[in-house]
Specification:
Elements (H helix, E strand, L loop, with lengths): L35 H4 L13 H20 L1 H6 L14 H19 L8 H24 L1 H4 L2 H15 L6 H25 L5 H11 L3 H6 L10 H28 L11 H10 L7 H20 L21 H10 L1 H10 L12 E5 L12 E3 L10 E5 L9 H8 L2 H7 L4 H8 L5 H5 L3 H17 L8 H24 L5 H10 L5 H13 L6 H20 L5 H9 L6 H9 L3 H8 L2
Parallel strand pairs: 1-3
Antiparallel strand pairs: 2-3
Helix pairs in contact: 4-5, 7-8, 7-9, 8-11, 9-11, 13-21, 17-20, 20-21, 20-24, 21-22, 21-23, 21-24, 22-23, 24-26
């Protein structure tokens, strides 16, 4: 799972073909658009009348940046629930790419120049967070250069532009269809521009883009056509014509990439210096690559050993034949998966493990689109967007096959609760829904993936150790295996992106050290290569949270309550743990270490 609340420019999350969009209630008629400013809560950490001009300037810079970003990345805006520019695609002309990069870099320099030492604690935190948000985009522009190296960017822009109009019933089918037509018309030119931009494409990324581009037909010719209601005959014809031209353009894009494959580099690592820069300046981690990799090796050894201590170590390898009920088909599988959610919610409430807010929307399970399988073999989660008025979320799970060798399918058949808890409640869906309700806009906009994935992985073991699963059961074993392969992810991520390992070495490591089948291992390795540092998030975030839990407990003494810790932790949104440590313990040591290192 890879939820991300930030827009990261050229490295935007890739969305791909959706095989089926489930019917949802008919929406209210569309209301006139309001200005972007009206949709955004002002970035305030305290009453603005009581703050200095410098602090006010920080929040003004942040508000202006979010408004600029939303307009410049219209597809990402749609995906986050802001539908002001649903008829546009991102402009990837070289001049516009350079203009955006310069804008972000100039703003980053302004924020770097702020003298915050004497600011109140909350405002200093906001300054650090906003700076790291800009650092992420600037790093993509300077180092990753995805517009030149990653063909997935342009396929993702096209497919996400349609997916973001379909996934929720935020407007009438006709209005969304008209927006889709406008976007479809722009796709051939966008893809042509993309081919021109790709001066140094990476073969692995191109192969993934080819698979995605050739898997879009069901989205464009099937799911999209559910919006073909209320269109005039001329509008219908225009939609069909634009759709067919876009599909042809995507297939041609894939064909052209395939021709170029022999001349592409296999994989291009960012190098250790850049990797360490990202850990510090973007993720605000008080660790370097060597320390991250060491934590991964320690945790891998621990969970491999814990598997071995099971009465039957095979319990860690999911086996559908051990299940009392094997669903006969996809629909039954989805229903069985979703049915366990209430059981988990009841357990959380009965044991006072976390407070579930009244505003939490429904969480649904859907089938994983084929185009996501190369990089998301276990599925992915789509939380409510930061601007979403609809609080619902959903999790895509792999295509059902009771004979599948895929780890995630086998695990979900035997017991879906560990993965369901990770993706839903108390995991991503709960935590990100709470984050969306923060009043401080800089913090609401922040999406620290290390904390997000760390919290969800922490929840898997927390539910096991608080008694949801019987000791030494298959579900208990599954939790250990999930932690084991998340530990293996660290070695793959660090060694791939620092240039120590090849892609095939990464696949073999997932199989041998992580205990995954080859299909899942190849998908995991592809995901790690495509999204630097994402794979370290799970274990590193969990490790930070466990460290904070112990210190919090010691601080609270006899007043300690685990549910209060969980509430205090996730009420802060998706912030780096180094920042949360400062908030909860009034200890800035970790973030000071980050900020003082050069």
């Amino acid at each position: 799972m890879k939820p991300n609340k930030l827009f990261i420019g050229a490295a935007a999350t890739i969305m791909a073909a959706m095989q089926a969009i489930q019917a949802q209630p008919t929406p209210e008629p569309r209301k006139p658009d309001v200005s972007n400013k009206a949709l955004i809560t002002k970035s305030t950490s305290s009453t603005m009348a009581n703050v200095s001009p410098e602090v006010m300037m920080l929040h003004k810079l942040a508000d202006d940046y979010y408004a600029w970003r939303n307009e410049n990345y219209p597809v990402a805006s749609s995906d986050s629930g802001l539908h002001t520019w649903d008829n546009k695609l991102t402009d990837y002309s070289p001049a516009k790419i350079a203009e955006r990069a310069q804008h972000v870099h100039a703003l980053l320099e302004k924020v770097r120049a702020l003298k915050t030492d004497n600011w109140p604690k909350d405002d200093r935190i906001d300054a650090i967070l906003f700076r790291s948000q800009l650092e992420q985009v600037d790093f993509g522009d300077r180092v990753l250069k995805s517009d030149r190296t990653n063909p997935q960017i342009y396929v993702g822009e096209c497919v996400s532009s349609i997916f973001s109009l379909l996934k929720k019933e935020y407007d009438t089918p006709r209005n969304r269809a008209v927006s889709a037509t406008a976007r479809l018309k722009q796709m051939p030119a966008l893809l042509k521009q993309g081919l021109s931009n790709l001066q140094s494409p990476v073969k692995l990324y191109a192969q993934l883009a080819i698979q995605s581009a050739r898997s879009v037909d069901s989205l464009f010719t099937g799911s999209l056509m559910t919006l073909d209601a209320g269109l005039t005959p001329a509008e219908h014809d225009e939609l069909i014509k634009s759709r067919d031209a876009a599909v042809i353009a995507l297939h041609n894009y894939a064909d052209e990439l395939e021709k170029r494959l022999p001349k592409m580099v296999d994989f291009s690592p960012m190098g250790e210096a850049n990797y360490n820069y990202y850990l510090k300046h973007v993720l605000l981690l008080p660790l370097d690559a060597r320390e991250v990799e060491m934590i991964g090796r320690v945790e891998l050894a621990r969970y491999r050993a814990l598997e071995s201590l099971l009465p039957d170590p095979k319990l860690a390898d999911p086996d559908p034949s051990r299940s009392a009920n094997i669903p006969p088909d996809q629909a039954s599988f989805l229903k069985a998966y979703e049915s366990r959610e209430q059981e988990m919610i009841n357990f959380l409430k009965e044991h006072h493990l976390v407070t579930i807010p009244d505003y939490l929307g429904p969480f649904q399970i859907r089938q994983l689109p084929e185009a996501f399988k190369p990089t998301s073999p276990g599925g992915f989660m789509n939380p409510p967007g930061v601007y979403d008025k609809d609080p619902s979320g959903f999790f895509f799970i792999p295509t059902y096959n009771p004979q599948s060798k895929n780890f995630y399918i086998r695990a979900a058949i035997e017991d879906p609760r560990p993965i369901l808890g990770h993706e839903g409640i108390p995991g991503h869906f709960l935590q990100l829904s709470i984050a969306n309700h923060l009043k401080d806009e800089i913090r609401r906009q922040h999406g620290d993936n290390v904390f997000v994935e760390g919290w969800a992985l922490y929840g898997e073991e927390m539910l096991m150790r608080t008694g949801l699963y019987p000791n030494n059961s298959a579900t208990y074993g599954q939790v250990l295996r999930l932690a084991r392969y998340r530990s293996a992810r660290i070695g793959v991520d660090v060694n791939l992106h620092t240039g120590r390992w090849s892609f095939e070495q990464a696949v073999k490591y997932f199989m041998e050290a992580g205990g995954l089948d080859r299909e899942a291992a190849e998908g995991e390795a592809a995901g790690a290569a495509s999204d630097p540092t994402q794979k370290i998030s799970y274990i590193i975030g969990k490790w930070q949270i466990m460290n904070l839990l112990g210190r919090y407990k010691d601080r609270q003494g006899d007043n300690f309550r685990i549910g209060q810790f969980h509430d205090d932790l996730i009420k802060n949104g998706s912030l780096p743990v180094s920042i949360i440590e400062w908030i909860l313990l009034d200890d800035p040591a970790s973030i000071q270490k980050v900020m003082s290192e050069k």
